[in-house]
């Protein structure tokens, strides 16, 4: 994991943000949460995260409201789908609900290792 990487939880549960902050921030990764009603606050390309964690119910909203985020690797919680292409499979992880936070952390760490640093 590279210091300065950023993970954004798009809506979802407060607990998801809290757990990710507790695990990832001591390792040098920042974790933020964006709520749909405040989504327009993050439209700047300088704020594009390295990974987006999104619940399946919020998936379309996260893609529509955040320009540039459609290319960001993501972890989708609550869905079991086959990726449309081989590329999508490498940059998207799907976790079924109920999920274990250890699975979520493993998926994020795997994507962060693949993600180039935005420094």
Overall structural class, as computed from helix and strand content, comes to alpha/beta
The total beta strand count reads 5
**What number is the mean pLDDT?**
77
Order of helices and strands: EHEEHEHEH
Shape: globular
Number of helices: 4
Query: Helical amount among residues, as a percent range?
Result: 25-40%
Report the β-strand fraction as a percent range. 15-25%
Largest sheet: 5 strands, parallel
Uncertain runs? none
- What is the strand arrangement across the widest sheet? 2-1-3-4-5
Radius of gyration, in Å, reads 13 Å
Oligomer: single chain
Protein model, in words:
With 119 residues, the protein is an alpha/beta fold. The chain has 4 helices and 5 strands, in the order βαββαβαβα. It has a 5-stranded parallel β-sheet with strand order 2-1-3-4-5.
Helix-strand blueprint:
Layout: E1 6-10, H1 14-24, E2 30-34, E3 51-55, H2 59-65, E4 74-77, H3 86-91, E5 92-95, H4 101-114
Parallel strand pairs: 1-2, 1-3, 3-4, 4-5
Based on the model shown, name its key terms.
119 residues, alpha/beta, five-stranded parallel beta sheet, globular
